[in-house]
Structure formats: C-alpha cells, structure tokens
Amino acid sequence: MKALRQLGVKIKEAHGFLECEVVKLDGTEIHLDYPSVGATENTMLLGVMANGTTKIRNAAKEPEIVELQTYLNKMGAKVSGAGTSEIIIEGVNKLNRVEHKIMADRIVAGTMLVAGAMTGGDILLKNIVIDHIKPIISKLKESGCIIEEKSDSLRLKTNKRIKAIEMTKTLPYPGFPTDMQAQFMSLMAIAKGTSIITETVFENRFKHVDELMRMGANIKIDGRVAVIQGVCELTGANVTAKDLRGGAALVLAGLGAEGITIVNNVKHIDRGYDRIEEMLKSLGAEVYRLN
C-alpha cells in the first residue's frame, strides 16, 4: 500500500475495506522495507502503466518475479532487473495480448517431494526447474532422502525413517521458502529426533500446529520458533485447514498417518494446488475429495 500510494493511488481505509482511486500514475523511486514478493509484483504491475520511470529497490528476487517480468515484456512492457534487488520499469501506454506458458510451480513440486518422503516413497517429478527448488532439495537430503537430479526432472527415494533436521529457517529467496514450512513440519513430525523450525517471513504461520497435534504430533511453539519432537507414527483425525500451505501439510500428514484423515475447509488448499487429490492419486495415494 505504501508503494501504491507513492505511485499515485489514493487509498482510503475504513470499516475493514480499502477504497482505491487513481487519477494519474507517475513513476517514482520506491524502496521496499522488506523484499516482499506480493509488494514487488503489485508495484511492477502498476509501474508498467505509469508515466515515466519506476525503480523498485530492495525488490524480491523470487523466480516468480522473473517470470512476471518475462510475461509483461512479451506484452510490450519495458521491465528489467528482475531477480536482482533493483527493478527498473519504463512506463508504456498499452499492453498487447500474448500467449504465455507458465513455469513449473516450485512449491507444488516441493509439496509432492515431501509427500514421497512422508510415505517412504519412490517418485519421479518431471518438468521442474531444479535451481528453483535447491533449498528444498538440500533439506530433503539432510533428512536422509536419496535424490537423483537431471536437467528438468528429479527422483526421490526413501528406504528408512526420515532423520530430524536440526535447524530450518525460512528466508526470502534463495533461502528456504516460507511456503514450504508447514509441509516440512509435517515431515519432521514423524522424523527421528528433534527439529527446530524458525519462521522469519510471516507472522501467524503456525496455524497448522494445533491440527497436527490432534494427529499425535509433538510440537511446542515459542513465538516464531517451533520445536518438533518426532513420533513414530501419526494417527488419522478430523482436522481443518486454516490456510493454504497449512492445509497441504495436513493432507501430507494424513498420507503418512495410520487410519483415515479428513481435512475440512479445502477451499484454502485449492488456492495453490490444481486438484491436489489427482496429483497424489497419480503417485498411488488413497485420497478422495468429499463434496
């Protein structure tokens, strides 16, 4: 909102709503207090049609930022610097229709890899960008998974109980992604030993903890730090998804649990996964959507 206001958007906050009005957008220099993906993307989108030049300093460097630049430039925008801390946007008068193939989703790829690790599986993922998921691969190897990498595919195998990962800290890219924190917590819940996960990106990102504990997980929270003592087995339960990645984590926990798990409020999960149950079924999971 701070960035949008600097570009000329008038924002009125009242009664839980935002009323936004634009008469004219003028390019300017914007320094983000934090390299937020959403803030960077929205500022890019607005800057493309603003008058003059917009500079975004302390920009997010995630692959999705580079993808957005590629897409916008195909449409006739003039954006450069994505993937670095400074993005420069020369405003244009119009954008053109284009056809664009979206890159592989690194968080969906990571979620499927954790699904394989949770269940002692042997899975092959195709059409992925290995460089985008290096932090995830590193942690999975640390937990004892056997991973074979090729140019655009990856095979994961596990042949024994997962080991605890001593310390995981979420960070902006290229650090470990906050969007994989919940899924890894499900994995660490059944790992051998004690794991510590520190969430540095978002507040209130431990909403899934109470639900995992209903399934038998041993987790203690202290502010932004979660201490997970691995148990031999989780048990199926009736649980509720409270956000997107936490919901995915509960599905993964259900795959590795004894008995039946019912995950409610799957509308959250659908925000980030296209028919997650179909992807998991293709890997041999017994998972069904109840309508």
List the helices and strands and how they pair.
Blueprint (H helix, E strand, L loop, with lengths): L1 H6 L1 E6 L2 E6 L6 E3 L5 H12 L4 E5 L5 H12 L3 E3 L5 E5 L15 H13 L3 E5 L7 H9 L3 E4 L3 E5 L9 E3 L11 H9 L4 E5 L10 H6 L3 E5 L2 E5 L4 E2 L2 E3 L3 H13 E2 L3 E3 L2 H4 L5 H7 L9
Parallel strand pairs: 3-4, 10-11, 14-16, 15-17
Antiparallel strand pairs: 1-2, 4-6, 5-6, 7-9, 8-9, 11-13, 12-13
Helix pairs in contact: 2-3, 4-6, 4-8, 6-8
Produce a short descriptive summary.
The protein is an alpha/beta fold and 291 residues long.
Provide key terms for this protein.
291 residues; alpha/beta; UDP-n-acetylglucosamine1-carboxyvinyl-transferase, Chain; four-stranded mixed sheet; 10 helices; 17 strands; 24% strand; globular
The CATH topology label of the largest domain is UDP-n-acetylglucosamine1-carboxyvinyl-transferase, Chain
Helix segment tally? 10
- Output the helix-strand order: HEEEHEHEEHEHEEEHEHEEEEHEEHH
Strand residue content: 15-25%
Instruction: Report the count of strand segments.
Output: 17
Largest sheet: 4 strands, mixed
Strand order in the largest sheet: 3-4-6-5
Could you estimate the helical fraction of the residues in percent? 25-40%
Reported CATH architecture of the largest domain? Alpha-beta prism
Instruction: From the alpha carbons, calculate the radius of gyration and give it in angstroms.
Output: 21 Å
What is the H level of CATH, i.e. the homologous superfamily of the largest domain? Enolpyruvate transferase domain
Instruction: Look at the structure and give the CATH class of the largest domain.
Output: Alpha Beta
Q: How many distinct folded domains?
A: 2
Q: CA-to-CA gap between the ends?
A: 38 Å
Overall geometry:
globular
